Amino acid sequence: MTAELRVGPIARALMHHFETCRLAAYRCPANVPTIGWGNTYYLDGRPVRMGDRITQQQADDLFAAILERDFGAPVRAELSVAGAAETSPAQFGAMVALAYNIGMGPRAWRNGLQKGFRQSEVLRLHRAGNYVGAGGVGGDRPTSGAFGGWVRARGKVSNGLVRRRNAEAALYRSDFAALERFTNGEVKG
């Protein structure tokens, strides 16, 4: 049942692997001030500003709260629509990891409206039960699924995003050997 799905430790480890934790604000590849485990805003909605600092505990607490409130709960809601296909815990974790990185969307951006998870092929194909279309087939073309459509930063293909999408798609498929490969052995199934 979708209402019972929670982000598990493997999905959290995957996000931590790709975000890394920084206690001082920095600019992410999209040039947005970011802090902690990839957060661009605080729980009260204030944006992160350059010069901000937080403690490790604050970073961990912020990650956990925003992950559930702004990504876990909304992804669960999107997967709970009538007629949507069943969702495994691994698929849920992979989709929340994707949403955490790309946003739920849509939102205004410098060059127009930026799509997000709600408009993604991953969500559309998953709801329709097309798990191969959403997660790909692995092998020598791991980004063949819809996760592979989210590999650009500022208009250019990012090798880091390619690795991240490969890892998310591997988690979606419950292909833990591939997940370990795409995270240099740091995330194990």
Explain how this protein is built.
- Belongs to the glycosyl hydrolase 24 family.
- The chain is mainly alpha-helical and 189 residues long.
- It has a single domain, classed as Lysozyme, CATH 1.10.530.40.
- It is built from 7 helices and 6 strands.
- The protein has helices at residues 9-19, 56-79, 89-102, 121-127, 131-135, 159-172, 176-182; strands at residues 22-27, 33-36, 107-109, 112-114, 152-153, 156-157.
- It has a two-stranded antiparallel ribbon with strand order 1-2. It has a two-stranded antiparallel ribbon with strand order 3-4.
- The longest helix is centred in the middle third of the chain and has 24 residues, at 56-79.
Strand content: 5-15%
Number of strands: 6
How many individual domains? 1
Largest sheet: 2 strands, antiparallel
Shape: globular
Q: Structural class, please?
A: mainly alpha
The amount of helix comes to 40-55%
The helix tally amounts to: 7
Strand order of the largest sheet: 1-2
CATH class: Mainly Alpha
Mean pLDDT: 89
